[in-house]
Each structure stands twice: as C-alpha cells, then as structure tokens.
Amino acid sequence: MNKVHRTALANGLRIATVPIAGLRSTSVLLAVEAGQWFEPAGRPGIARLAAQTMLRGTKRRDAAAWATALDALGAVARLDVGAHAAVFSAQCLGDDLGELLGLIAEAVRTPALADAEIEFVRGQTLAHLEKDERDTRAVSDRAWRGLVYPTGHPFHAPAIGDAAVVRSATADEIRAYHKSAIAPDGAVLIVAGATTADAVKKAADRAFGDWPKRAGARDASYPPVALAATKRRVEVVPDKTQSDVIIGWPGLPRTDPRFTAVRVTNMVYAADTFASRAGNVIRDQLGLAYYVFSGIGASCGQSPWIVRMGVNPQNVHRAIEVALDELRKITVGQIADDDLALAKDKLVGELDVALESPAGVASMVLEAEMFELGEDHFERYPRELRAVTKEQVIDTARAFLPPDRYALAVAGPALPEALV
Amino acid sequence: MLYALEARHAPVVSLWVWYHVGGRNEVPGTTGMSHFLEHMLFKGTTKHPKGDLDRLLARYGAQWNAFTSEDVTCYFETVPKARYKTALELESDRMRNALISLEETEAERTVIVSEREGYENDPSFLLGEELQSIAFSRHTYGQGVIGSKDEIKLMTRDGLYAHYRRFYAPNNAYVVVTGDDEPERLIEEAAAAFGPLDPSSDLGEPPKAPEPDQLGERRVTIHRAGGTLPIVMLAFRAPRATDPRAAAISALSVALAGTSAGSDGASGRSSRLHRALIETGLAADVDASFQLMKDPYLFFVDATLRPGIKHADVERVLLEELAKLSADLLAEDEFARVRRQLLASTAFNTDTITWRAYRCGQLLSTGAATSISEWYEKLAVVTREQIRDAASGLFVERSRNVGWFVPEDDVA
Fold first, then answer.
1. Given pLDDT bands bounded at 50, 70 and 90, which one contains residue B271?
2. What pLDDT was estimated at residue B412?
3. I need a surface site. Which of A409, A416, B41, B161 has the fewest CB within 10 A?
4. Does the pLDDT at position B234 exceed 70?
5. How close A6 comes to chain B (CA, Å)?
6. B122: nearest CA in chain A?
7. Do A274 and B115 touch (CB under 8 A)?
8. What count of other Cβ atoms lies within 10 Å of the Cβ of residue A311?
9. Per-residue pLDDT tens digits for A12-59
10. pLDDT of A252-269, one tens digit each?
11. What's the complex ipTM?
C-alpha cells in the first residue's frame, strides 16, 4: 500500500490521501454517517430520498446548472446510501480535484431541497420500487430482511425504503433529516490517485473548512437481533425462469475484533464461487447454479451475512441442502487445511491486486478510516488474516452461521415442492 | 500477436488472451458454442487437472475471469507481478491442451442453462435479444452469444472439442499484457510461453455473411408479466470499428446519454436523453451505446418508462431527439462537455491496470486503433460536424429496429 497521508479539519472531517504516481485521474470518496443505521426509526427510505434530492440543485445553482458543471469536468459521480454511510463516490482528472470537491461540497452542505425536486425524486423512487416488485433479486432481498430484522430496525428494508414511506415523506421531514444527519462529525474524505496530500488539504479546506459540526448528539442504537429458529419465505414472481435464493444470518459490527475471523470464515464457506466450499460443490461439482457467493456488510450494526444463489426452481431444494451441508461441515471442523490456507492467501493476495486502481485503493482506505481500524491497519491486517486458526473459523461459524437456525428467502417461479 | 504496455503504479500484471472466435462463428444448431467452450476452458488440461492452476491463482489473490462476445472469446488474469509466470502457464497450457471431457461437459451444461435462465429473468435481456435477432437477416450477429436454451442442451462434447482445436491457437489470438515491468520483458516472457505452441491448420476464412441493407423499419413487441415497467429500445445499423466514423459515433453516444449509465448517478445529467426523458418524468432510466465491433453492428438507444407512460410517447420523443442531433450542430459548450467526458472516461478506464489491458485488446482485436493513444487521438479530433453527420447517417427510418417491452398482469 502506498503511504496514507492523514489529516483532519477543525470541524472533525477526517481526510486520508493516497498519492499514486503515473495516473491521470483521482478517485474521491466522501462518506458521511448518514446511512440506514442513522435513519429515523421506522422511516426506511428517508436517507436515500434526501441523498438523491441533494443531487438536484443547490442554494447557488439549480439542478441543471449543477449537473452541467459536473459534466463539464468530465467527472463521474454518484451518491449512494449504504448500511452505515451515505457515500459520494467520484472520479475526475487530477487537475480538476478542487472544482470537483467544490461541487460535492455544494450538494452535500447547501442543497436546495426544493419542493419540486423532492417530488421528482419521489416519482423516480416509486418507479424503481415498482420495477423491483418483479425483480427476483430485489424481492428475495426484501423478503429476507423482513424475516430477520424487526419492523423499525434500520436493516428491515433495503436502502431504497418502503413505498409507503416514500409516498408519505414530507419536504420538512427530508430537510430535517439533512440538517441532523449530514455533518462533518464522523465523516471521512478519501482521495487516491493523481494528487498530493497538500493539494487535497487545501482543496478540502476550501470546500469543507467552514462546514459546521452537528448540533447535539445522535442516538443510534438498537437491540441485538438473533434468529430463534429457522424462518422461510417463498415469493412467487410471475413469468420468471430462475429462482433467487438467499440464506442468511444477522452479522456483527465491523469494529468487532472477531471481524477478521469472519472474513476468513466467509471465504472458506462461500465468498467466492470458485475458491470457496459452497461454490465449489454447488456449481463446479453438481452444476446446480451459475453463481453462488456470500458476503457480509461493513457497518456499525449487524449487517446481513448472506449466501446468494441463482437456481432453477427444480434445483432449489437441493442447492439449499448442499449449501447448509457445507456449512455443517465447517461447524464440526471438517475443514481441509488447504481450504483454510487458500482462504487466507486469497484475502491477503487481494489486498495487493486491489492496488491496481485508484478506486480500489480508496475503497480499502475508506473502510479503515470509517471504522477507525488504526493507522497501522494495512501493516497489521495481512498478519491478522494469516493468524486466524481453524478453531476460530469453527467458532465463528457456530456463533454466527448456525446451520439449524437461518433465514431463507426464495423469489422466482413457483417451486415444485414446499421448502421444509 | 503479443502486445505489452507498461503500468508502474501497482505491483501487478494483467494478462489478456483474445481469441478471434465468438457468436459470429456459429451456425444455427450450435448457437452458444463459443460461450459453452469458454466455460470448458476452466475444466483442466492433462498437465493441470481441474482446480490446479485456478486454485493457485486464487491463492495469489488474482482477479481472473473470461467472457464471450459476438466477435471474441477472452480470458484474463490480474496477478501480483511475481506471479506473471503462473498466469502465462495457465493460458498457454489451455490454449492447446484443454481436456473438455464428456463428464465435465455434462456437469457444465446445467450451469450454462442456469446462466441463461438468470438473464431471462431480466426484461431488458429478453427485449434486446429479440431486437438483435430481427435486426439481422443474414449476419450471425443476429444469433447473440449465449445461444438458445435448446441448443445449449443439444451441444455435444465432440462439437465443442472440434471448435476448440480449430480456433484456440496462437495464430488466432492476441495476447495483451499490462503491468509493472518493461514491455520488452513482458513480451519476452509471453513469447517464451506461447511461442512453442502449434498453430491451427484449420482456421479457414473468417465468417462472411454480409448483412444486406435494411429497407425499412422492423418492430418487435414482447409481452411478459416478468417486468413492471415498459421499455422502448431502438437499434440502428451502425458501422464497424474500423470505419472512420467510429470515433464520432462514440462521441454521439456520450451526447445522448453521458458516459456512465444509471439515472441514480450524478453524472451524465446534462445529456440530451436525460433532459428530454428523465427530467420530464417520461422515463426512469435511459441509455445509448455503441460498441466497437468487427462487422457493422447496432447503435442502441433505450428508455425504461415511468409507470403509466405510453410507449408511443417515449418513442416519439426519442426520435425527435435523434432527429435534432441529425439536423443541428451541438452548441459549443455542449460539445466541449461531450469531448471532456469522452476523453476523461478514457483516462478513468485506463488508470486501472486490468481495464487498460482490456481496452488495448479491444482496440486491437476489432481494428479500431493500433494503440490506446491512437484511439485517444481519434476521439480528440472529432468535430461537431462529424457528430452531426454521424447522427444523420445512423438515425434513419429504413435502418431502424424498434422493440417494446409491454408488462402484463400476473399470469402465474
């Protein structure tokens, strides 16, 4: 990893810069603690409505003028709401960094949030929600979340939210959310590529230096979530040929010291369609699915830890059985030494390969900075991955992935047999 | 042919092997054969049984995969610099020595059917596949890439093996490598790996099935319950990558829809289609795309409609926007934005080592340019007049193909 230059503004905004020689472009990530975790309880979708409206005009220029200025730089940018943060991600030519940060700051700090623009975003969001109703991936995701997280929990619905909330959200509610959630406290700015630490500090000072801190503290804590028994839901989506299957469990916060063992366990089990146990058996040996992969989100809550598969309805039952069977083997210690070594090697090796792109570098640094993993994280992390033992993998699987207590959601054509 | 580019910003190397075989080399009854074969190249050789080298690559944290298009089949590995030789060993070995056993063919068949069924869940895929098929009456581009489900089920091991022996050989491939070393050295090592391999003696002539001129609009409508939002998709006949107009047509697609797809994104919102369809509440999403291809292919324009909007209304607005670009020059400031987006996106893509190698291979294999910098220069000198002329040449009724996706109520 190239040297990470860290600094902070007086208002708390932390900045990490990774200059990379030989590039023409710069990747920028501005992560603000305004993800699902910080949404008003029971109002899923407010954070995304606010974020999308922030892209539609500022106090200084209307939506068309702001969009024109961004395109004039040739930059690409988007603002996504994740489990933990709302992340502005962008790429520009190195010389344009100051102008790009100025545009981002305008949108984030002083959006117009005009009534007409809120209505526009509402219409777009409802169109996407309607599209999702017949999208098997979206249907299975929503069904699975409903099984695991109680109503009112931030992960009960996907970030796009519930249609009822999107329909009923008022302009005042969105403006209030912006005022309370979008602040430099806890936010991080990551810049990687054709730039210098000095240039980033100067540009960030200009763009964000007088961004006021949040007034008052926020309370974002929720009772722990646990599955007391297996839960299943099958959603029939008409006119489809393939079923989307999710088997999953509530995860653990990124800051939990066991998270490194979680990453290794995930890789041993199902993270990669080819290198992990589940993919190897389900796809490569049995030919039951084109893709099988698992993942766990990084947030300060219990993000989903899920396995996803795309399976012909005739094979759904068997694919689920095999996926759980491979998990059972891990929980009873049937882990080949080479499978464990492969998982650790792959995770360590990927850290090097990710250096090939400024976006890859920025993404790694963002996780480290967002969750305050320490200035020596990139030096420690490969060692910590390598130090994970078979016993830790077994314990992790038993604690977080019990094969006799899971949530299962299937969306697609009607299944030939009931799932039990 | 071997081609190398230096990229010193990270200690990795990206190796790409481009075979001149794809959907265009198939005949009815064997559609999807090149794609099926791509899957079989991951099933081992005599020297390296299935799982041997790929497990090793995974151990190195490699990014590696393959894809098949109408024109080419392509394999790549991005690895730590010290593992370049392993990537070369994998690719040179499977260029001539893949096993393609009967047992593995049967096991993989259901995986490929599953891949196709996943695509079929997407209304855009269904509409695009139908539109592509009606746009070509002779050229094999009309068959697409993945093949029909029935033909995937009928594919034979012997047919696949014959296809493999014929097309997978050094005299039918481009090897492109980008990474943290001197180009001469990267080429030298690649030459040592691929040089000793036997050429194919059975390549034959490239497929020749010139598509006759289209003489009028063609239309297709898909009625399905598998989607909720209507779609309008237009496909106009477009020239091949070597055509002098290719750079201007690339700029035209940026003028229409920007460089990054997706209405959630913040960029591309000053584009013509975004303003005419998304800002007016007619569409939830728009896109325009032009691919660099060996033979004349298609320029696609599509819109996913907002609920309750009529197909005909969106089609009319789309055609009006295309007509404006055909008749009038872009304003100076608009042209400056388009040019900036086009050139910046070239830098963005090529700042990633994997995508630098991909872009280079794509330009070489289609003949669009002999290097990334040559293509950049072609884009840089595109004029407003060329964009207008490209539009007026493309967007004509007689070479227009129109597809509608019409959502139906639940029929389950």
1. very high
2. 41
3. A416
4. yes
5. 21
6. A135
7. no
8. 27
9. 999 999 999 999 999 999 999 999 999 998 999 999 999 999 999 999
10. 999 999 999 999 999 999
11. 0.93
Contact residues on chain A for B307, CB-CB shorter than 8 A: 126-127, 130
CB-CB under 8 Å, B111 with A290? yes
Q: Which fold has domain B2-194?
A: Cytochrome Bc1 Complex; Chain A, domain 1 (3.30.830)
Instruction: Judge: B269–A120 Cβ closer than 8 Å, yes or no.
Output: no
Say whether domain A231-412 belongs to CATH 3.30.420.150: no
A5-208 CATH pick, 3.30.450.40, 3.40.50.970, 3.40.50.360, 3.30.830.10: 3.30.830.10
Cα A252 to Cα B294: distance, rounded to the nearest angstrom: 50
Of B106, B258, B351, the CB nearest to A71: B258
Chain A neighbors of B106, CB-CB under 8 A: 287
CB-CB under 8 Å, B78 with A355: no
User: Encoding tokens for residue B160?
Assistant: 């696949």
Q: DSSP 3-state helix, strand, coil percentages of chain B (rounded to 5)? A: 45, 20, 35
Mean pLDDT of B271-278: 97
CATH number for the domain whose boundaries are B218-407: 3.30.830.10
Contact B111 A283 (CB under 8 A): yes
Q: Which residues contact A95 (CB under 8 A, 6 or more apart)?
A: none
Would you say B360 and B176 are in contact if contact means Cβ atoms under 8 Å apart? yes
Residues contacting residue B105 through CB under 8 Å, at least 6 positions apart: B40, B155, B156, B157, B160
Where chain A has pLDDT below 50, the residues are none
- Taking CB atoms and an 8 Å cutoff, what residues of chain A touch B102? none
Which residues of chain B have a CB within 8 Å of the CB of A73? 340, 344
Indicate yes or no: CB of B55 within 8 angstroms of CB of A275: yes
Residue with tokens 């030519």: A93
The answer, as to whether pTM is greater than 0.90, is: yes
Amino acid at A202: K
CB contact under 8 A, B411 and A107: no
